[in-house]
Amino acid sequence: MNERTTDYGRLIVGTKAELFQRALDLGVTARGSAERSRFLWALTGGGTPKEWYQWVVAEKKLSPAEAAGIDWTVSDERHVLLNSPESNFGNAERQLLAPLEVPTDRRHPWMVAWPVAEAAEAYRRTMLILAGPGRAYDVCFLGMGDDCHTASLFPGTPLLNDDGGLPFDGQEVPGKGWRLTITPTGLRQCGLIVVMTLGANKADALHRIMNGPYEPMNVPSQILKTCANRVVWLVDEAAAAKL
Ligand code: 6PG
Where are the alpha helices (DSSP H) in the chain? Predict the structure, then answer.
């Protein structure tokens, strides 16, 4: 694997198998060195995590005992019920947490049955109890879309104004419906952020993030520059082709 430091975090380029293993190792190592008894690991949405869940389960990479020592959530969520195939936490449950028999009191979905404002408020209260004041996730997995979005921070969203506001919030994203998401403030309160980005369709976006002008309102993933010392990008050769 090829590694270097960038303005946006540590960049690691490798094969999918290497990156999947590194993603797991980063989380497990952080868990091992955590001082608190509770450890919050946020999974994320998109196709890459789904493949990663299947790999973790099929290859028996995490034991039920290890998984039960972690509090699991997701970085962002669609405002749909958990049984929807669109639900990020629902997918994480079906493909990772249930197969690993993670106890239900270690599973922390967004409260999607409630209206978005109440759901965001209830989630903030839960995270405050689990993480403590001024802290968000110990490990936050993220993906990156070909429009440079990350979590549910899409180009133009007011949540990108980055005014030191709430760590988690909800909003309507034009054309995509209601979303609940970690905000820039929340990202800065995470212990470690792991962005997994695979495939040739991500090459232009990655180039724009890392080599283009800093304009996070149009290029949301650039917001990670504000916490770059805790960010690791796991990128395959195809996605890294234009760096
Ligand atoms: C979601 C995500 C989103 C995702 C990217 C990348 O809910 O869809 O949180 O930010 O991570 O769109 O998705 P892929 O893994 O499919 O490229």
Answer: 16-33, 47-58, 64-68, 88-92, 116-131, 184-188, 203-211
